[in-house]
Design goal:
The chain is α/β, with parallel strands linked by helices. It contains 9 helices and 5 strands; from the N terminus they run βαβαααβααβααβα. It has a single domain, classed as P-loop containing nucleotide triphosphate hydrolases (Rossmann fold). About 55% of the residues lie in helices and about 15% in strands. The chain has a 5-stranded parallel beta sheet with strand order 2-3-1-4-5, with helices on both faces. Bound molecules: adenosine-5'-triphosphate and magnesium ion.
């Protein structure tokens, strides 16, 4: 029987390097003989992800926080069997955001942690083995995001970025997420993440 795999989530505010790092980590770990599954949430281009995207970029309508939570939750929970089977088969799943993002964003908007926990328990959400939080300042985030053409409803808002940063800090502490300094050069960030991952795989 295969050794059970690992589910690793890369988190952080906008522009913290999640996409850059998941790709680099996937390449590195694959070259070292590991079987990697890359995930990215929300899953844009798929039915639930597209509903989320329409909301994020809509200027005409908004969802209440309950609907937002359920949409994001549906995006994760639809992959429950897929994630579980891959973990059973010894794969390493690297995910760019997950329920951990919902814990930050939707809590800011008023969803209590107790309700998020009830959802996760009721439907058997797969828990990450490790959450790695790439810490960058709201200022760095804003500078990096300025390079992008179109920003979603959260990204262009400097005040919201500050709130987001403070909440990431708070929840990272509460939930014992591993913190990596995302302001370092890209290769140093990768090195720090690999050191963390090597301890559990
Ligand atoms: N360590 C780094 N130093 C400087 N620039 C970086 C670093 N890591 C990533 N970048 C650059 O910052 C920008 C945002 O990076 P990336 O897309 O990986 O972040 P992200 O966390 O995935 O953002 P989003 O939340 O918007 O998806 C990109 O232009 C990327 O090249
Ligand atoms: Mg990204």
């Amino acid at each position: 029987m295969n050794k059970r795999g690992n589910f690793i989530v890369i988190e952080g505010i906008d522009g913290s390097g999640k996409s850059t790092q998941t790709k680099l980590l996937s390449d590195f770990l694959s070259q070292n003989g590991h079987h990697i599954i890359l995930k990215k949430y929300p899953e844009y281009g798929k039915p639930i992800g597209d509903l989320i995207s329409n909301w994020l970029y809509s200027k005409d309508y908004d969802f209440n926080v309950e609907a937002q939570t359920l949409l994001y939750f549906a995006d994760f929970i639809k992959d429950k069997e897929y994630l579980e089977n891959n973990l059973k088969n010894g794969k390493i799943i690297l995910s760019d955001r997950y329920f951990t993002s919902t814990m930050v964003y939707q809590r800011i908007k008023g969803m209590p942690m107790s309700k998020l926990n009830i959802l996760a328990q009721t439907f058997g959400l797969i828990k990450p083995d490790k959450v790695i939080y790439l810490r960058i300042s709201p200022e760095t985030s804003f500078e990096r995001k300025l390079q992008q053409k179109e920003l979603d409803r959260h990204e262009g808002d400097k005040k919201f970025l500050n709130v987001l940063f403070n909440n990431f800090e708070k929840i990272a502490k509460e939930c014992n997420w591993e913190v990596v300094d995302g302001e370092q050069p890209t290769n140093k960030v990768t090195k720090d993440i690999i050191n963390i991952i090597n301890k559990i795989i």
